Records
---
Amino acid sequence: MRPEEQGVEVVVLVSVGRHPITGRARRADQDARGLELALGLEARLPGSRIGLLHAGPHREESESALRGYLGMTAGTGLDSLTLLEQAEGADAIPALAEHLAAAPPQLVITGARAERGEGSGLLPYALAEHLGWPLVNGLAAVEKVENGVATLLQALPRGQRRRLKVRLPAIVSVDAAAPAARQSAFGPARRAELEATPVAAELDLELAEWPMVPARKRPKRLKIVKSASARDRFKAAAAKAEGGSGQVLEGVSSEQAAEAIFKLLREEGVLPR
Amino acid sequence: MDEIRRRDPRREWVARNRLHPEHARALAEQGGGATSEWLGPQGVMRKNPHAIGFMGPNGVKRIDRSGAQQGGRVSGAAHQAALDRRRIVTIEAPAFLVAVVPELSGGRLSSHDKDLLGLARRLADADPDHPGAVLAVVFGEHKEDSFGEAGIDRVLHFGDEAYAGFAPEARLAALMAVERELAPRHWLLPDSPLGGADLGRRLALRLGERPATGVWQVEGDGEAALGWRCTARGAAESLDIQRPLPRVALALSECAEPVDETRHAAEPLSLMAAVPRALSRIEDLGQVAVDPAGVALAEAEFILSGGNGVKDWDAFHHAAKVLGATEGASRVAVDDGFMARDRQVGATGTWVTARVYLAAGISGAIQHLQGIQSCDKVVAINMDPGCDMIKRADLAVIGDAGEILSALVAKVEQQRGGQRDAA
Amino acid sequence: MLETLLPILIFAALGLAVIGAWRRIRLWRQGRPSVVPLFKGLAALPRRYLVDLHHVVGRDKVISNTHVATAGGFVAAAVLMILVHGLDLAQGILGWLLLAASACMFVGSLFVARRRRHPPARLSRGPWMRLPKSLMAFSLGVFLITLPTVGLLPSDAGHWLLALLLAAVVAWGLAEMVVGMTWGGPMKHAFAGALHLAFHRRAERFGEGNRSTGLKALDLENEAAPLGVEKPADFTWNQLLGFDACVQCGRCEAVCPAFAAGQPLNPKKLIQDMVVGLAGGSDAAYAGSPYPGKPVGEHHGSPHGPIVGRGGKALVDADTLWSCTTCRACVEECPMMIEHVDAIVDMRRFLTLERGETPNKAPEVLDNLIATDNPGGFAPGSRMNWAADLNLPLMSDLQQVDVLLWLGDGAFDMRNQRTLRALVKVLRAAEVDFAVLGHEERDSGDVARRLGDEATFQSLAKRNIATLDKYRFQQIVTCDPHSFHVLGNEYGELGGVYDVRHHSTYIAELHDAGRLAFSPWKGGSVTYHDPCYLGRYNGEYEAPRRVLEALGIELNEMQRSGFRSRCCGGGGGAPITDIPGERRIPDMRMDDVKESGAALVAVGCPQCTAMLEGVVDATAEVRDIAELVADALVVRPAAQAASLSRQPQLEEVS
């Protein structure tokens, strides 16, 4: 451990998630990854402190989901969560911004998008705009924190990474590329405390106005062949629908087999260029 | 649309004369490639049997009369012809601007970008009497030369070094300069993690707009402020939110059909005022090399998975490296200690969602097949034509996994070498 | 001289033994309180010892007779010696009896010595190697000093030096047999074992045909109640007593599938580690087989120190606990009636509930159980997809049926769906009035409980019980022995008492009642694999064999079958926690099948099917009993008559 590395004060914003299949309340995947990142940071940088922050209504369902985060803290000394209690349908951003501005930490970690409500992914940006802090999205790892500057790894597609240096305080958002969250244990979750403080609620009237329906399956785009030749158009129209059993090549040479596979890989665009 | 056919009788004669030293060249010129059919001087179709077919594996020429092979040959020319037939559209005095910030992954317009530009065109062309213009704001170096075909009327290029890499602050400052000077009516960005998702949200908040995110459908709506209504995905893809289209919209891929019938001017544009330098608190130190083998299985989009039929594991690892695939394994391969446990695919291992799953020497136990349920394309290489993996596969090859993989590796390497030579 | 020396020796030994006993009892009392009827337990002791314990010991006749001779001789000799030599009541027959008892013990000790000449690997060495000599010293010494007492030798025979030597031998014997009993020598097993039998945590397991295999529920209502076992002192006092009773005979080690597969578990070592933890210290003195791949002497513990260290080494490594398949083979074999599986699950509970350290895929499985009520994370609404064409009657439509068919999570597994279809076909053929819960069914909670997640288990169990309470049915039939065990043996404590039957039992009953008829078996030779949760957990060894017999199959039994059946490796969440070993348990089981020469192995459990079918290059086919029955079904004469009566109508239509 280098001497100039010092502990950081981290606040992890957590929300009530929603299981994609059953819709039950749970710890949100991205937020839990954010907490995992913070816990990893705490383990590496002694003297770090983690705070958990949530703004929303205090109900039984949401409480059990929030306790899911606290269940991850076994053996870390973190045993409470600050709950900014708001009415249903209130906008969480002003309450969170105010709370963070009052006692600014060095690093705020949040998931990229909520699993409930609008889920627009605006929250980290709104907070960054409110607080005037830099923001990095798609965080994969925090490499080090030195003299108020954090070196981060940002996730790029196909598992690639980009190294960034950010002056603290900063907001970082994590998505599926961040380390997977550890198991949530029942005991610590049950014992932990929710420190609820009621805050003034600004109702999100705009959102309430918009009609929301369970997501419809998006139509699959058809391959429309706009070819000059009638023959091509006919072939496209008469082509067998995809699916069914695939093509089987038997008794061909390795080269031909490789050729066929190569063609498919190139069509799918998975080969590196 | 200059469609007058001009003929060169001498060339046609050379093309007909197989013994003429320039025969091959003339033939190639005539058909714009290796055409095997053309209209002769008497108006009769002429065929050149030497130009059709392909060399078979045994060095014998084979002719595929199903037309598939032939179609492939002409497609290049046909494509060219189709492009030529595009209507050229020039919008001199646009009524308004639709600004699009394409993600330009790899320096080219991605399919997501093209869909988005299609959407932009819909917004711009809604009123034929007062058409808007699509303005593309392009950052950094790019290799794209078909902005016009994608439906772009104006291109504003910020090629400065300061905009390269991850530079959200500089880019935001540039977009704000565009906003001040050109005041587009719409701002459209792709809602892709490192494309517009980040920049679009920053822009919206700077503009004080509440953006629509995850937009996948836009419909006209007279009551809305901008005349459009959109459907946006919310709550982790589980809700559809209907709302009036705001000024800033972040759209998903396939939000509209890409432009394919018109060609636009793609006129370069520049701003009058210089973009103010933003003080950056984020410094990009460049990309870090990551081993594709280390990518988590569940997220990988191309998996090369090995099973009992793989004998040479070093060659397997090499193949994965060359193909740029993430490595997976069947339970047996893991049990036998050839692969780590976290590489196991299947109901008892990892459920994968790859676009292409290449199974080498895996016969396909039920648990394994369950684990690859959500893969788009499955390619199987196996010795046993009756195994379950072959039944599941979209493309199955019967043969030795090691041999075919090495042939595939050779093929890919050769292709890559060829490309480098051409470039 | 001996007359003065002997009472001193005897009463000194007894005194030391009493002090030792008091100290030992204090060690046990470090454990958590557990209410047991003390006097009733003591009163039941002789029966538990003579019947239940010897039923287990008696599986090996030589050892059993050796033990009867040695232990019986010793108990008699010790009592008589106190009377004869200690209290000097040498009149009449007592002396002769003492002679006979010590002679008998001597003969026994000869057999013990013979066994110790080339001890099998499962036996511990160390202090145990001197035991036969100590036994001989005691029996021979007592025999010799009694000779003058009964008058076979003159009382002043021999030199005083000889007398002193004899006294030394007797003192050695007494030190080992009486003092060692309470101070931690090999004879500790007699003292602790007797009390363990008397104060056993599962008193209900004793008695002919009784078994008690369900795990005991944690009190989750009380927030102060501990969640599982973190340190040795967190076990109940009678569990600690049970560990201390271990004789290190290694029968558990010999049958443990994880040990055989080279996974880091040895039930005997585990129990000995608990004894180390109970007394405090290091495991260096342990003289038996270690956990495979883990050298002895690197672990240490104390009664109030953690059993599983966080990051470092403590008493036991976590992978040892997660290697167990909860097959109960060790418990079944243990002559001291030690409950290994209870202890392992208690320790797992702490790791899961307090530390959140369930290994590998287990957290994902537990999260799935919480979020989707099934371990695979499938949409609960897709539970009945496999039966879309079967038109299964639903409980919610019928409200009341004879048989509730419990599908289990096999409903999501493509392989098990074949079994389920076969079972439905059989039930329909027998015209059973049955229904399924459909989407109302949830996972029984078996995996969650074995993985130590008692909270999820109880949540699932309570919701299942609430669902079952809505309907009326005679019995539950299931093809999943795990669900069978949980519903039948573990829901009771949470308020759900049901008559549950495994499908093999039920099919046997249907066949006995003449409601099923089979065509004769035409296949090759068949063997039967006893699922742990059907056999050892529920004692059902007969019904599956009766069904197979009814099918006309002559079983080719495997070497290890019945109560000694080897686990398939699929229980206790072992495939999920997936602790690496040198071999795979199912591979070993399929080797057993191969050895029996059978071309087909009949099973009765979805887990076993999946594990055994997962074996590469297996020589035998794996089929569920339900599938075999469904294939052999022929129309019963009665049904034929029924269909005949319907035929004219059909003709009219056509």
---
Amino acid sequence: MNALRRQDLWQRLREAALVEGDMPEPDAASAPWYVRAMLGAAGWIGALFLLGFVGAGFVWVMESASASFVVGALTCAGATAIFRLRAEGDFAAQFGMAVSLAGQAMMVFGLAQWFERSLTGMALAVALQQGLLFVLVPNFIHRCWTSWTAASAAALALAGAGLPGFVPAALTAALVWIWLSEFDQAERGALLRAGGYGMALAAVQSTMLHGELWALWILGRGTHGALGGETALWLGRLASGAVLVWAVLRLLRREGVPLQDSRARVALGGAALLALISLRAPGVGPAVAILVIGHANGNRVLAGLGILSLLGYLANYYYSLQATLLVKSALLASAGIALLAARLAMRRWWPEAPEVQRA
Amino acid sequence: MARARDFILDWAAQGRIPPHGVRRALEYSGALPGAADWRAFLDRLLLWLGVAMLASGVVFFLAYNWQELGRFAKFALVEGLIVASLAVVWWQGLEHAGGKAALLGAALVVGALLAFIGQTYQTGADTFELFAVWAGAILPWALVGRFPALWVLWLALVNLSVTLYFRAFGGVLGIVFGPERQLWLLFALNTAATALWEALAAAGVAWLRERWAVRVLATASGACVTALAVLQIVDWEPGSDWAAPAWMAWLALAYFAYRNAIKDVYVLAGGALSVIVVAATFLGKHMLKAQADAGAFLLIGVVVIGLSAAAGYWLKRVASEMERT
């Protein structure tokens, strides 16, 4: 069934003079998601045993921070070599993944002991380490993992430095930037996508946890420990709303829609309304930004992640301490009514076209 | 449309589509939204987001005032919610997604109602009774509704009540024998459900054909039998010796059913993972003695990696073979 659709699509593209020649053979290596998930789970089990091997056989490695880091680095170098030399083989991919994970764990263990007192320092070091691995190791799943951990570590560093409120905005901005350049750099598509998915996971995580609870949970201190106090918090919320507006602006530019166009005004109006809502419910901006970018790229997974982060944020909002449930319910209700009113307004300002036109 | 996007991006990565042509190819094949799609998207986004926020606002308001509401007001609210959902079901009809979602919602609220009754009147019932009664209450709806999600909910409730029953009535022996007996019962239940579902689906009941639901059941069945095998290996308690043969029988059955008759690679992947877990447990039990032996760890690690690579290779081959036919 898929082979038929493939053939059909190639044929149509050829008729439109977008491609030429014969259809390339389908890549046999791309597997369904559950097979990849199974391989990922098994890779982890293997890595645990390898770590046990190091722990049992080389106890002295675990006792010394430098030894742990150096051995970990060598292990990761070995894994990188495996991936680069035998990129296609299944066994090599599995072995490399397990070895690399064990090496990363050892390096983080060493870093944790070095940076005992500074969370920011350690987080930055881990981010750098994972970023380097992202660039060096060409495997897709490995890249998703390294980009996710790198983004999360960078976010932790930002939070540790005293700016937890800006984390969702920063991660979402990076996400928007990556995904909007997906089609411009098609030859590096796999790298961009892996990085994009990793960033998306980190952004979803931070959006769902937006608010004081996250800072309390991870850093063990409330918002009073943050730089700039209340002002910084408000700026963080402003940033969360602004990132949505920025995403819409960049999208309009990519689609070639001039800003004077009524459709552009409607889109920006909607984004501004949601940014306003984000001033009080800061998770809404980033979540809708992820959803919009996912839809713009025809990527259902990304759009789904956007919806997920929105629902997760609503659940988190219930528990947030910034206002009583009464105030929050009033905010939500008025936001809901505003959005529905905006929808009615949109139907007037952007009427349905009599025939379907492609932009 | 999602498929077209994947194909085109694959071809672009292979260099068969020039870089400047990727965007045009995607638009041409309809993988990217056009102006009309965007308008519809914005329309739906504003609608759903607006409704969700309004509804959340109402829920938050009720939560705020919960303590002050009288007993009857609370009952009226919960029961009113069920009645409203059923009204939506009647209005939309069970063929539409809206009707199905409303019935599922009503089924969930029934649980809340039962919990509320138990809490208000201090019936002293055990937790498993709540889930058992809940399952019994929604059984007629599941029969009438005829859609997979509701049946999956029903089975989840039955599973929960069985698990909690053994927790409640275990006693001293329960702590020792409990996990195994409970797992056997759950295994029997979920495997029977999976078999029945597949048989009915194959016999022609169209609404049972959604794969995700029966995959969930098969996962539950596989998880139970894997846990049983692991428990036997680890010698958790003087249980029966039937776990290992049952596990192997399950694997054989799953292989024959899902490789040849019903072609679903998902269950085969689950079976492969089960084999890896049991093999790792078996080797771990027999090779790792009192002081952890480094060589044993390394060997087991390599075995796990080798097994998973082999499994991955086999599964990919089977998947592409099934796709071709």
